Amino acid sequence: MSANSPSEVVIVGGGIYGTSLAYQLAKAGKTVTLLEAGEIACGASGGPGERGVRSNGRDFRELPICSLSLSLWKHYQETFEGGVGYRRLGGIKVYDVSYGHREHEVKGRMEAMAASQTSLGCPSQVWSRDEVLAREPELAGSIFGAVYCPHDGVGDHTFATRQFAKEAAKAGVTIRTGAKVAEILHAKGVASGVRLESGEVVAVGDRLVILANAGAEALLKPVLKAHETSPVWNLMPQMIYVTNPLNKTVNYLLSHAHRSLAVKQIPDGTLMLSGGAHVAYTPEGLWKGSLSAITQNVTDAIMTFPFIDNSSFVKADASRVEAVSADLIPLIGQPEALSNTLYGYGWSGHGFAISLGFTKLFTDWIVSGSKPDALKPFSPTRFHEPAAFLGAAAVSRAA
Ligand SMILES: Cc1cc2nc3c(=O)[nH]c(=O)nc-3n(C[C@H](O)[C@H](O)[C@H](O)COP(=O)(O)OP(=O)(O)OC[C@H]3O[C@@H](n4cnc5c(N)ncnc54)[C@H](O)[C@@H]3O)c2cc1C
């Protein structure tokens, strides 16, 4: 490539998706430019604490990709100098019997979930009450079982995103921060470049990839046809941090089968509570918490780990925005009007865990020119084509 020729691939968005894709494509021999409006990891892939790297309880359509992703988290943790901040602790989804429900129903649902997760590539075991309390002794006595996923864990998302950016730069990727894309430029059915807010045009060699999360919809809307658009909205998940004065240990990444809760213990011992009600979103990126959102999440945490009642409040953070789709799985596609453009967004609050699997499949797509079958369930046309959603067999049976 001469100094003035465009990169083969231009990526918009410097979160975990953009940086890990840039790295993988550079390693596959592509020339790559990554454009980020702010700084690397200034969006959902940044901020304090850790993210859950979880297969447990996921939408089944995501599980094969999650399985691939979890193996890649382990691989990069072991091969990057300094790792990627991934800790494979194992994850548990605990359950009790909520008011009005039957024990056999809860247990049956959990056993069916564990069996399906295992057959879709994410090993899962059902633990009895004694087994779960022996391994996570601070749990409330009302817990009577758990689904355990040994490959689940946690990741320092900010560190991981910066590590991929660092390794991508070493592999030759041009990373431009403060480069907000205002518009996709196109001619004859392909994206020819992007115009930055500054007015500068960045030319696209072969492929444009939009991985701009909450910024993706605005860029794509002018080029998508009506049947390619999808209902998305933005949410601001809230993370609560509390002290650990009794020096207790939470051994696993924990979620609950019917409480809106995630609990992690970050390396300094602080407890991180999340998974509860989200806070208000404003287009300016401002967030407004509420006592009710905090109260609900803290109550669910104490009902699960009673020792947390001794903790003191440290802070709540809900400064990061995430795009969400109507069925809570991502939107991955190629606009009909632009044959060289790909996009992925709408990770719906749980995109960190599966990011490396999706970016591996994006890499395969770009290198081979064919869309991997595993990405097909995520096409936005699912909202417009009932036949595709139900499957051809179901439609022909009904006819
Ligand atoms: C508080 C919170 C907690 C979460 N917890 C979990 C969890 O426990 N487990 C899990 O798996 N997932 C979790 N998620 C989801 C996960 O963090 C995201 O799905 C993932 O980080 C999304 O990565 P991304 O690269 O697509 O987006 P982002 O990190 O948001 O990156 C997109 C980038 O695009 C840039 N951009 C936008 N518009 C433009 C433009 N026009 N031009 C140039 N650049 C642009 C933005 O500045 C941003 O840096 C959580 C999300 C949040 C917000």
Give a quick summary of the entry:
By secondary structure, the chain is α+β, with helices and mostly antiparallel strands.
Please, could you describe this protein's structure?
The protein is α+β, with helices and mostly antiparallel strands and 399 residues long. It folds into 2 domains: 188 residues, 3-Layer(bba) Sandwich (FAD/NAD(P)-binding domain), CATH 3.50.50; 143 residues, D-Amino Acid Oxidase, Chain A, domain 2 (2-Layer Sandwich), CATH 3.30.9.10. It has 10 helices and 24 strands. A hairpin with a 5-residue loop joins strand 16 and strand 17. The longest helix has 18 residues. It is globular, with a radius of gyration of 22 Å. The relative contact order is 0.18. Flavin-adenine dinucleotide binds next to helix 1, strand 3 and helix 8.
Task: Describe the secondary-structure layout.
Layout: E1 9-12, H1 16-27, E2 32-35, E3 51-53, H2 63-79, E4 86-87, E5 91-95, H3 103-119, E6 125-128, H4 129-135, E7 145-149, E8 153-155, H5 157-170, E9 174-176, E10 181-187, E11 190-196, E12 201-203, E13 207-210, H6 216-220, E14 232-235, E15 239-242, E16 253-256, E17 262-265, E18 271-274, E19 280-281, E20 287-288, H7 291-304, E21 313-317, E22 322-325, E23 331-333, E24 341-345, H8 351-368, H9 386-390, H10 392-398
Helix pairs in contact: 1-5, 1-8, 2-8
Bound molecules: flavin-adenine dinucleotide.
Class by SSE composition? alpha+beta
Distance from first to last alpha carbon? 55 Å
CATH topology-level name of the largest domain: FAD/NAD(P)-binding domain
Compute the number of helices: 10
CATH class of the largest domain: Alpha Beta
Instruction: Identify the overall geometry.
Output: globular
Q: How much of the polypeptide forms β-strand, as a percent range?
A: 15-25%
CATH superfamily of the largest domain: FAD/NAD(P)-binding domain
Low-confidence runs of at least 5 consecutive residues:
392-399
